[in-house]
Amino acid sequence: MKTDVVIIGGGVIGTAIARELSRFNINIILIEKEDDVAMGTSKGNSGIIHAGYNDDFNTLKGELNIKSNPKFDKLCADLKILFKRIGSLVIGFSQEDFRKLKELKENGEKNGIENLEIIRGPKLFELEPNLNPQAKYALYAPSAGIISPYKFTIALADNAVINGVKVLLETEAKDIRIEEKQVYGVVTNRGLIETRIVINAAGLHADEIAEAAGDNFKINPIKGEYQLFDKQWGNLVNHILFPIPTKLSKGILVAPTVHDNLLIGPNSYWVKDKDDPATTKAGTEEVCEGARKLVPNLPHQDLVASFAGLRADIEGRNDFIIEASKKIRGFINVADIESPGLSSVPAIAEMVSGILKEVVKEISPQLELNCQDDFVETLVEQPKFADYLDKTGEWQEIVEKDTDYGEIICRCEKVSKGEILRAIHQPLPARSLDAIKRRVRAGMGRCQGGFCSPKVLKILSEELKISPLKVSKKGPGSEILKTKTKEIIKETGVKFKDEVRV
Fold it and tell me: BFD-like [2Fe-2S]-binding domain spans which residues (predicted)?
């Protein structure tokens, strides 16, 4: 297999780069070792689009966050995903906190952020009635917002595929083939992909990919644990609430989600395993304790899910790495993209596009990066039953055109069969229960798939034309069903009511 550019990593950074580069008339392959995009840091984070007051504008973090923040309204409208610019409040309790808030405000204003305001007194509790009564001050940043990071990643990938990018899932980069200090190809578990340009957007594993190309830095994973509450608690707060930030993190926040749940977290601590998203009892307690400092009357029940995310950190470094290798021609690192990485996505992709142009001039002057005349900027709006609950007449018109939209599969999240079928056949198709969940939310409600999972499994089996025994939760090795009960009956004589046994 041969191509012009290989992007390693199907997180939000890799897919955003793929979409941006698909503007050019070049061949692009994105490889991802998991069975779907958004399987790492991009699915386990807060989903916050930061205003940009926290980082120095002289850093890439500060510069790219500031450039990106205003772009999210149009970008999310083009990709047909939710983005809510609800604003953020950094909460202070003491005079020392007040001094820190002033520093953040001054830094933000130097960065060019408008409408920053330090709020105190009754106005603070008018904005947030459930805030800790001991709170005295808050830095208000109206430009902050919330997004679904995994839906954003999937939409970017869909748009890239529509524009010609080839996405190879379950394809792991094993090595970088180099000849005479020039990239020659990427060795994968499925064979060699010949290319002269590699973009390393491998997230937590970017250091391993970089080492294969002769660049040396060490990524240490930082784990953050979260708790997600039922939608009836989504209006407990109106803004993103932050504590005073520390050098390690922006702290344990309390915020609504774009899907009207309530999210608290994360804590932050270094771990050794880059692929261990397990939650802990101590972590759960720490998150609850930290969140209750901001909102004391957090619910003690209606917890929908606990989860953890891992993010990349290079000890002693406090900035992104976005640059062409100085040792190997054709190799570009996009690494150490921790917070505000999600908030910086559009500008990161544009910066990589600029670097690519310079790399092409150096190694392939004959390869002209001309823009495609038929680049597709937007995705098509797809009907969602949850959006039509008070417009039943309009939904009925959709059902009359396609009866699959009349069968509700997920009761908690109000997801129809038509939406699930569409997810299976969209540009980057869903092939597992979790992939369906990330696209249309079937299984994300109160029962966490207890009711709808067997139905989704059946739909996947029928549409993919595979045995129910082959349907997985999240790719090979996570198959849901073990064997047919008829085979158990034959072997043991024990009878079960159902045809298959989990």
Answer: 408-462
